[in-house]
């Protein structure tokens, strides 16, 4: 599992999106089964940014599940889709 703490970049939306994208693509490329994004227990705004990013249609193709703990545990776990189960492009 790859773990990424988003606290150092929480004020920069572009850096957050870039980090999320790069981490997910790295996980898929290296065969990792999951990525954990640490968002913290603050107001929940950073977690919401992560969930909004993950909801994009082209990003959803990279994973099969997103796990959060009710009550804002401060982390988001993304379960990566296994390469064999991903449909090949025509």
Protein model, in words:
The protein is built from three helices and four strands, in the order βαβααββ. A four-stranded mixed sheet has the order 1-2-4-3, with helices on one face. The C terminus is likely disordered. 36% of the residues lie in helices and 22% in strands. The longest helix is centred in the N-terminal third of the chain and has 18 residues. The chain is of the alpha+beta class and 90 residues long.
Strand count, sense and barrel status of the largest sheet are:
4 strands, mixed
Low-confidence stretches: 85-90
- The separation of the N and C termini measures 30 Å
How helical, in percent, are the residues? Answer: 25-40%
Structural class: alpha+beta
Integer average pLDDT: 88
Strand order of the largest sheet: 1-2-4-3
Shape: globular
Number of strands: 4
Number of helices: 3
SSE layout:
Elements: E1 2-5, H1 13-30, E2 34-38, H2 45-54, H3 57-60, E3 63-67, E4 75-80
Parallel strand pairs: 1-2
Antiparallel strand pairs: 2-4, 3-4
Write a brief structural summary:
The protein has 90 residues and is an alpha+beta fold.
Question: Any key phrases for this structure?
Answer:
four-stranded mixed beta sheet; 90 residues; 3 helices; 4 strands; alpha+beta
């Amino acid at each position: 599992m790859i773990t990424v703490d988003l606290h150092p970049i929480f004020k920069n939306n572009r850096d957050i999106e870039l980090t999320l994208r790069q981490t997910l693509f790295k996980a898929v490329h290296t065969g990792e089964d999951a990525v954990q994004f640490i968002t913290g227990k603050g107001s929940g705004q950073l977690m919401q940014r992560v969930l909004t990013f993950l909801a994009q249609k082209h990003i959803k193709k990279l994973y099969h599940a997103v796990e959060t703990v009710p009550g804002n545990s401060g982390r988001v776990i993304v379960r990566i889709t296994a390469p064999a189960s991903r449909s090949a492009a025509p």
